[in-house]
Amino acid sequence: MKLSIRNAEIGYHGRTVVAIDSLDINEGEVVTLIGPNGSGKTTFLRCLAGVLKPFSGKVEVDGIDIYSSEGAKLRKIIGYMPAEYSPPESLTVKEFVEFWCTIYGTPCNLGDVPIPLHKKIEELSSGQKRLLSLYRLFLQNPRILILDEPTANLDINNRLMLYNKINLIKEGRIVLYSTHDISDLPIFATRILFIKNGRLVIDSSLEELRRNIVMIKGNIKNLLSEIKLIKIYDKNKFLIRYNGKINELVKKLVENGNEIEEVSEISMYELYELMMENKI
């Protein structure tokens, strides 16, 4: 199974918010969408979920446009959780779950619900409402999951439960989710999409993005010609790219008259800053 988007302009009231030339997401991938506020992440996800038809271009599953009459059946295999979804507050948790079990034709195992069944939804915390929305999505058992900020308002335990759930079900499925919490990336993502100003500017694995980028601290007098300087923090702290083994790099730097105090991997926050500054 493959989810594709081609030559798409997406937006509202005739104004393009996001433009994507070409993108393919394959079965088994867990793809993270990141970017600053207002960059178009939610608009992009709504389009892929079959909620917002592009002005031009196509969104396809295995070559069939999901917005065509033939593609209507394909939209049923897409599960979408919007960022702002709130379950009806007059219902109890039990009533909400039973309603969606009926809609999806799914056996109702109320013992699996991670929230007290007797509680009215209006009594739940924002994190519990988020958890209930995720539970509704998993009841649907979709083959394509599109999640807008799924970890928002979740505590650590419930985040871990979500991570484990996605790891268990990702085979045979496509998972695409957005986040503002970049600490999610090493746990979740097999691939990262970075959107800025309505354009897809990075499409890469986390491993590839971080490859050969290291932080060096020390009394650095002579950088090697094969080192690419990415960022200078101060006279004793540099961010560099080196296409080789790090232990070889340290040895060469010391032989070249430099004093090395520390060599460390780039943090996720530093990586995000580099993306924002167009330095990757």
What do you see in this structure?
This protein has 280 residues and is α/β, with parallel strands linked by helices. Helices cover 28% and strands 31% of the residues. The protein is built from eight helices and 14 strands. It has helices at residues 41-48, 93-104, 126-140, 156-169, 185-188, 206-210, 246-255, 268-276, and strands at residues 2-12, 15-26, 30-34, 56-61, 64-65, 78-81, 144-148, 174-178, 191-196, 199-204, 213-219, 228-234, 237-241, 259-265. The strands form three sheets. It has a six-stranded mixed beta sheet with strand order 6-7-8-3-9-10, sandwiched between helices. Strands 2-1-4-5 form a four-stranded antiparallel beta sheet, with helices on one face.
First CA to last CA: what distance? Answer: 30 Å
Query: Could you say which structural class the secondary elements and strand pairing correspond to?
Result: alpha/beta
For the largest beta sheet, what order do the strands appear in spatially?
6-7-8-3-9-10
Largest sheet: 6 strands, mixed
H/E series, N to C?
A: EEEHEEEHHEHEHEEHEEEHEH
Mean pLDDT: 89
Strand content: 25-35%
Task: Compute the number of helices.
Answer: 8
Cα shape:
globular
Flag low-confidence runs. none
Characteristic terms for this protein:
single chain, 280 residues, 14 strands, 8 helices, alpha/beta
Q: Can you describe this structure in just a few lines?
A:
The chain is an alpha/beta fold and 280 residues long. Helices cover 28% and strands 31% of the residues.
